[in-house]
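To whoever is covering the structure queue this week,

Two jobs came back overnight. Logging them here so there's a record in the thread.

Job A:
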Amino acid sequence: MTKHNTLTKLLISLCTPLLLNTTSIAAECNHNASECMTLSNLVNHLKAFQQFADNNSELPGTRFVSTSGYDETRDYIAKKMRDAGYQVSLQDVPMDITYVTSPRIVEQVTPDVKTYQDNIDYAPIVNSGGADITAALQLPAGDGCNASDYSAFKSGNITLIQIGDHCDRNVAIQNAIEAGAKGIIVSYRGLGVRYMGWNPASPTISENIPILASSNEMANELKQAIASGITPKLHIQFKAVRKTIPSHNIIAESQGGDPNHVVMVGAHIDSSHGNAGMNDNASSAATVLETALLMKNITPMKKLRFAWWTGEELGLIGSNYYVEHLSQAEKSKIAVYLNFEVLGAPNGGRMIMGTSDGVTPKGSEKITQLYVDYFKSKNLKYYVFDPALANAARRSDMFAFMNAGIPVGFIITGAELPWNPLFDSIFTDLPKRVNGLDTHPCYHKACDKLTMSGDEIHDANFDFDLYLQMSKAAAHAVYTSAM
């Protein structure tokens, strides 16, 4: 049985498959948007986003930045918002990026001869360099998160980093490069290969260094060889092309509302380069869009500003660019920024980011409490997590707003954080989850997509009940903050 089929069966076992009729319901609402939110409308947006990914000829099956999958998503959202009467603008966001072209080779040449399979055992990461190298594999002394882990590393070797929740991969990759690694393998736990990128300090820093993401199976095989006293020698051959690409943030404002007190709402719309990104983060992009459409006939007290970000998967590029290009006076007008990620994870829960002195700006605690009060009012269980958990505060588009001193709120159902006994004890109102499995098992993997047949959806990648609950919570927070 292939790894892909094993993963599919595992995902399907997570939740009872749900069949939905996705007949459109008009987006009209004259009161709190959460009361008008429907799963049917949310799924209609998701179906459109999946179609854009399927139509993508540059990177098939994805909505990666500067490809047709992304551009069609952008145009769909912008048109919906213009038709609803919002003032819509596209903000140009230039970014340097490196693509690895085909064919590419990763193989073990000694002591065994083995060819690893592209997109199954490994995938080049975005901003990998290109080279043709053959070198010994050497592990860092620790996990690679500290420069001292490479004190005994031999320059010119290839290294393998297995990253958990305690380390930013950008830091680990930078440490390996500075130690003289000529090739870098990055692995996370879990089935299959995880698509990822990294954001180098300089576009040229890794132009001659192949960097790849490996499956956990491939990484463990190599680690076990080293543990048994064998030093594998690997051959990696990548060709890479670096260029500056154009992309866009979508910014849409309400006609009414106090322009000196802005409630800003955002989610990223780009996928990673190996999937359609339907939970990460089309789920949130659809929720933000539907919330805006439901509020089109409501005049808010505060100005509403909706944003859909580009380049999040490349290092929060779109949101950072937006905040960096605001004047101090413009920043001071933003009363709060509400951010959303992965709202329908099939092995996930209702997660609210808490606050922490020195991390979250003053006022953020009010947004956390707003979500707590909402879930309590609906008799739904929730978990308030520390912003440092899995580097959550640093890994999503709220980070630039936090650095600017703007209060933030954030909800998510999960990503690579595994379900655990603590969650079991809290979320007694959720269907049985699988302990030890990632809360979003398809996070950054090829299976993060919709499986459709005609007007029906049958999908193990979503807990649709949870998705609707989280979308209603998001809409409630937007409406309450604006009114």
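Job B:
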Amino acid sequence: MKRACFHLCGMLLLIVLVAQAAGAATISYSSSIPLSTTNWEKQISLPQFNPALGTLESVEIRLAAYVEGMAFFENMDAEPTEVTTELSAQISLHDSALTAVAFPIHTVVDSVEAFDGDVDFGGTSGKMYAGLAADDSAADQTTDPSRLSQYTGTGTIDFTAQATGKSRVVGPGNLAAGFQTKAKADVTVIYTYSDIPGAIGDLVWIDSDADGIYEPAIGELGVNGVRVDLYDSEGNLVATTYTTNHPNTGEPGWYLFDGLTAGPYEVVVAAANFDRCGKLYGFAQTYDYDLILDNQTYYGLGSGETFLGADFGYRPRTQPGTGTPGYWKNHPQAWPVESITIGGVTYTKSQAIEVIKGSGGDKSNTLFSSLVCAMLNVGLGNNSACINDTLYAAQNWMATYGPAGSKVKANSPAWKAGEPLHTTLDKYNNGQLCAPHRD
């Protein structure tokens, strides 16, 4: 709503952000070193933890190791024997702070006969295996603040991955054997951090001219007592609040959900507001942040973000009608506000009523009276489209020649500019323009 006023060896595979309760969250980055013939050493670069997300509490590295290949042996002894074949590798991941080491191993135990005379890795005295494979995993973690600092920033952190063949055959002294191995590594770094709380808000207002712009200068007002619900991405109710006066400006119709973790949210103006006794009974929606007029809007909140654009505009389906200065000065209980700002000066309700009662020959009071009453009429939800320009012009006139009680004379150049504004506002207040007169 607009307000009118015055070095990477493996391919990076995954980035996951998970919002969690109570301000804790994790973000992880993963990369892989493809299957390569051992022995090898490779570098992996992964993103550092972005401090804009919050405060880093721990770092964990996870290594998923895999080895595959073939093995063969020949018993060269004159006696039968038992032979154990182990296809394996040592795969490690480390930087200056963390180290994870995995040992995937595939073991086969065979009983073979005495040497059959042929070194063919077959027959009765030998074996050949293809397609042997094994996997293993390892992890390491730190919460040491002095170590966490190296993982924090907007650049990358470098890890070294190594794979060393550790295959062996265990058997008699006279044994011929060999291996072919390949290994790969999947690497993940997980950052756990304290999420910076965020907030979503902030306005439900009467959009008298249905233009989707909150315009307090022409009399548009927020609506207090409207129930607003907040749901998470799973459809769970997170919180409920009711619109009230803004703590700083005092403007009505304000709401705020704060202390929120990052993630997608749905803000809903509850259906109960439109029941017969609800604050928005008889109102039609004119504005929604996502431009779908369904009394709800979606927003993906970033860590520490305060989003104040989840606003909702409404106006009465049937206009309540306008009142004249005579009506408003005699019905203080009908005023929708306790104070009003004219030409940059704020007046209490009682002060404004006294000016309306005693406007006399002071033309600053005359325009003040017609402007105040027009703004009150707009604040009730009467259509203001036909006088918006006049209302802004009248505000500027009061800022230039006011405040009320400035003794502007009828024959002055100031009133020559102000009288047409008064005439238009007076017609509006008497129901002669785009809004009917109240019964």
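Note for Job B: Helices lie at 145-148, 325-330, 349-357, 363-379, 388-401, 413-429.

Please reply-all if you pick these up so we don't duplicate work.
Q.
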